Amino acid sequence: MSDQRVWTAALLVIGDEILSGRTEDKNIAQVARWLNSQGIRLQEVRVVPDVEAAIVAAINALRPAFDYVITTGGIGPTHDDITVDSIAAAFGVPVITDPGARAILEDYYRERGVPVTEARLRMARVPEGAELIPNPTSGAPGVKMGNVYILAGVPNIAAAMLRGLEGKLQGGRPMTSVTVSAHAAESEVAALLKQVQDEHPGVSVGSYPFYRDRGFGADFVVRSEDGPLAQRCADELRSRLQQAGVELVDNR
Amino acid sequence: MSDQRVWTAALLVIGDEILSGRTEDKNIAQVARWLNSQGIRLQEVRVVPDVEAAIVAAINALRPAFDYVITTGGIGPTHDDITVDSIAAAFGVPVITDPGARAILEDYYRERGVPVTEARLRMARVPEGAELIPNPTSGAPGVKMGNVYILAGVPNIAAAMLRGLEGKLQGGRPMTSVTVSAHAAESEVAALLKQVQDEHPGVSVGSYPFYRDRGFGADFVVRSEDGPLAQRCADELRSRLQQAGVELVDNR
């Protein structure tokens, strides 16, 4: 089991609006959960501004290091949407207008009685050699270039593009996580947690303090690609915590 | 004005819980806004797992590239809290127990009648040569090592540590941003936006589509370190949009 191939991904979030604090990112968590459901592990995220050199540097650092790179943001029709040009530059290829993407956009706007303008057709521009990712929501398709998947920044459009990618990326077994919550200070159970983790190779145990209505405590998250093992380890942790006199929170 | 020194920062978010999608990050936006209020521009964010090699690589890539590096996460008392050890490794120094931090923690726990355990004193460990960042909330101080500022991952504790840093980092003028919202498709006004930006050097204009109760549209965000210039540019944009027959949304 432990020698099974692990599939990895990085996410590159492109956008001044995230770095300025104007917009709270929603894509990291949704992409992370989606990748996990596909048996792929998100191992790094970077957020860079709408600056070509920054995007090129990040893409060329990430694409050889991970199986997949997903990008969000910067694929709309305005002058600050430079993701496609930057990724083409990273791959050293020109940008072309994709006839398939152009046809999708023309159909989409025609059905809605909206004029097809030059700005709208910017969204049919792709790096030469790219493939399209269908987008059931807004017409403009996502783009796959090598192992880089270019998605929209608007979270519901990115979600639609992820649905379009469902099952198309090769992955391994999804990660199982089981949470054990307790009204305990992390520092009181630190040794116990480490011991339980050490006794279950192939499992990681994370500890996340909380402050909720009914007092403080911590969530202990047991993660493994081996679902039954994660469950056994969580059961063991639960019983050790009880033996130590810790009040558990029922969240099953 | 344009030759004024720009102060830059990167944020390193450390934590498996963000990469697994279990926890939605709240620190990127709050650190971004805080830096902006200090006249410092957040130019890159990375999220890495609780893995020493990943933290060391990110720290050593970011600290020479930006004026400041802020980290969040991984400074609690449990075995998965390895930020301090990793940053010491990045700087090539040992980890020591800081007498000042130890005294702060001992006082904090004594006042609350909580036993001072070895696990709790883990939070007094710092890279040799580090300084402390006061934390009015939870006792455990943040840590400054070189140009790296080590904060907690729990958002309200990170916020308290940022308040402790208020005014202590040298910065420039804060960025002013003025938003003009309109019921317009981005693609219809793309040329107009670019033109207005080009006519106002020192200003950037971003475009962010929205889908709200009363229909779709976009927020056009005018940003500059020169506040009056940002305002003039936004006024000009507003009047050009009206001339073009676009319905503005009043958000002043």
Tell me the greatest interface.
Answer: A-B, 64 and 64 residues
CATH topology of the largest domain in chain A: Molybdenum Cofactor Biosythetic Enzyme, Chain A
Quaternary structure: homodimer
Label the structural class of chain A.
alpha/beta
Q: Examine the secondary-structure arrangement and name the CATH architecture of the largest domain in chain A.
A: 3-Layer(aba) Sandwich
Report the uncertain regions of chain A.
none
CATH superfamily of the largest domain in chain A: MoaB/Mog-like domain
Topology:
The structure is a homodimer of 252-residue chains.
Chain A (H helix, E strand, L loop, with lengths): L6 E8 L1 H4 L7 H11 L2 E9 L3 H11 L5 E5 L10 H9 L3 E3 L1 H13 L6 H4 L3 E3 L3 E3 L8 E4 L2 E4 L3 H11 L10 E7 L3 H13 L5 E9 L2 E10 L2 H17 L4 E2 L3
Parallel strand pairs in A: 1-2, 1-3, 3-8
Antiparallel strand pairs in A: 4-5, 6-7, 7-8, 9-11, 9-12, 10-11
Helix pairs in contact in A: 2-7, 3-4, 8-9
Brief overview, please?
The first copy, chain A, is of the alpha/beta class.
Overview of the molecule:
2 copies of one chain form a homodimer. In chain A, strands 2-1-3-8-7-6 form a 6-stranded mixed sheet, with helices on both faces. The mean pLDDT of chain A is 90. The radius of gyration of chain A is 22 Å and the shape is elongated. In chain A, helix 2 packs parallel to helix 7 (155-165), helix 3 packs across helix 4 and helix 8 crosses helix 9. Chain A is 37% helix and 27% strand. Chain A is α/β, with parallel strands linked by helices and 252 residues long. In chain A, a hairpin with a 2-residue loop joins strand 7 (142-145) and strand 8. Chain A folds into 2 domains: 7-165, MoaB/Mog-like domain (Molybdenum Cofactor Biosythetic Enzyme, Chain A); 176-249, Alpha-Beta Plaits (2-Layer Sandwich). Chain A has 9 helices and 12 strands. Chains A and B meet through helix 1, helix 2, strand 2, helix 8 and strand 10 of A and helix 1, helix 2, strand 2, helix 8 and strand 10 of B. Strand 2 of chain A pairs antiparallel with strand 2 of chain B, so a sheet runs across the interface.
